[in-house]
Amino acid sequence: MAKSSSAFTCTACGAAHKKWAGRCDACGEWNSIIEEAPLSQGPGRGLGAHKGRAVPLSNLSTTEPPPPRSRSGMEEFDRVLGGGLVPGSALLVGGDPGIGKSTLLLQHAAALSRTGRQAIYFSGEEASAQVRMRAMRLGLADAPMRLGAETNLRDILTTLEAERPDLAVIDSIQTLWSDTIEAAPGSVAQVRASAHELVTFAKRRGVAVILVGHVTKEGQIAGPRVVEHMVDCVLYFEGERGHQFRILRSVKNRFGPSGEIGVFEMTGSGLAEVANPSALFLSERGQPIAGSAVFAGIEGTRPVLTEVQALVAPSTLASPRRTVVGLDPGRVSTILAVLEARCGIPFAGLDVFLNVAGGMKVVEPAADLAIAGALLSAREDSALPPEAVLFGEISLSGALRPVGQAENRLKEAQKLGFTQAILPAAQKVEGQAGMAQRRIADLTGFVGEVFGAG
Ligand code: TYD
Ligand code: MG
Which atom of ligand 1 is nearest to the CA of 171? Predict the structure, then answer.
């Protein structure tokens, strides 16, 4: 391919450039420009060269039933997908190396095959013997799924074309290579071309395809963002090192709600499903201690209780530490600023450590009150009532704002033995007996009510 015939495109904004540059001057993104092979310039190109065919149009009211779904029986996985795999859908499962993606997908493919569906697992990173050994250890050796060790895209597509399984797992997209692209496996061009061919195949033949993708240090699935745009569903498999919990989170789902999570525990014999994550995330609780607050959260469609833990200690540093794990650091800074400006409680000169127990990540603004509660409790060295859960969003004025799904939050808390909720005064709650509700208008009120100070 002659150099002059290639084009350069920014993977962030899509701007076209004549030559490569370190920074896209259209959107300002660094290192986002890649070289692309141009579209073929054959004689058939251009409008008017062909008479296109008329596309059949339809209206919005349709009597088509919802897509049939294949449930694998692995409940946590099925729920994250919105009720099971949709035939012909393409999924991307991303995660750090070693987090358990191969284990998860092997278990899922095996479970699906046990329901009578055809599943094929292509491994590009491990030999078949290795995968078989793992399957044996996981107690899956008798599952009627099939394995292939292959990285050549053409061979994989030929096999799939002949077999037409219900599910094909490609582990991983970074190991695939297509001989029609002159680039190394794992390069942007290869990953994109391979993903495109597999997604097209999935749609054409009604085969569900799951692509496994490694995540780079920056937290993105290696390769261009376009892979995320191509697939119907993007799942992240995450967990903290040193914790046995793993969370499968849907960040995009064309066939179901996104934001749904499935919780697993990595054990000696593979991933075990955790049907009641609240109990698990709270199980580390003992005596009431200062700096701990229980947040009644919602993850996807399910209420999950988590424990926010804070430690506040005098700092010897000119700019004290703000170490935050499992929460949005920007959100925490805002809450610290509101506590200081609206309640006159300074954190200057104090190191602050905040963390969510169990390696869980909490992104809901509804967690604000629990974060403030943990911070205040740590700073005042005074425990919050151990039978209470907290939720509510804090505005910059210090006022507490109501949040969604209060009933579900309270129901879950009650189920786990909590008897009291600290929540925004303006929160509407429909029919919830058995839970005492301490309603609070703003942060100053919270400090007074809970810690007995003004
Ligand atoms: P793996 O699925 O290979 O991760 P990935 O495909 O995301 O790179 O899982 C690797 C880790 O999981 C490995 O460090 C060992 C651990 N593991 C267990 O703890 N128990 C098990 O039963 C299995 C199969 C793996
Ligand atoms: Mg793997």
Answer: 6
Distance CA 409, CA 414 (A): 9
Q: Which domain holds residue 143?
A: 75-275
Residue type, 216: T
Assess whether 267 and 382 both reside in one domain.
no
Q: What is the pTM assigned to this prediction?
A: 0.79
49, part of any domain: no
Same structural domain, 334 and 300: yes
- What DSSP letter does each residue of 123-173 carry, written as one string? ESSS-HHHHHHHHHHTT-TTS--EEEE--BHHHHHHHHHHH--SEEEEE-G
Place of tokens 């399910």: 302
For residues 197 and 303, membership in a common domain is answered with no
Q: How far is the CA of 270 from the centre of ligand 1 (A)?
A: 7
Same domain assignment for residues 255 and 134: yes
211 shares its domain with 311: no
Please name which ligand lies nearest the alpha carbon of 244.
1
361-380 pLDDT, tens digit each: 899 999 999 999 999 999 99
- The verdict on the CB of residue 95 being under 6 Å from ligand 1 is yes
Here the CATH number for the domain that contains residue 254 is 3.40.50.300
Does one domain contain both 126 and 244? yes
Identity of residue 48: G
**Which residues crowd ion ligand 2, with CB under 5 Å?**
102
Domain count within the chain: 3
Ligand found nearest the CA of 170: 2
Do 290 and 423 lie in one domain? The reply is yes
Ligand 1 atom 23 nearest Cα: 270
CA pair distance 91, 68, nearest whole angstrom: 16
- Tens digit of each residue's pLDDT (9 = 90 or more) over 128-186: 999 999 999 999 999 999 999 999 999 999 999 999 999 999 998 989 988 888 877 77
Q: Is residue 186 part of a domain?
A: yes
Alpha-carbon span 303 to 412, nearest angstrom: 6
Strands 436-440, 420-424: pairing is parallel
| CA distances to 60, 63, 208 from 57, in Å | 10, 15, 26
DSSP string, 195-234: HHHHHHHHHHHT-EEEEEEEBPTTSSBSS-THHHHHSSEE
Type of residue at 161: E
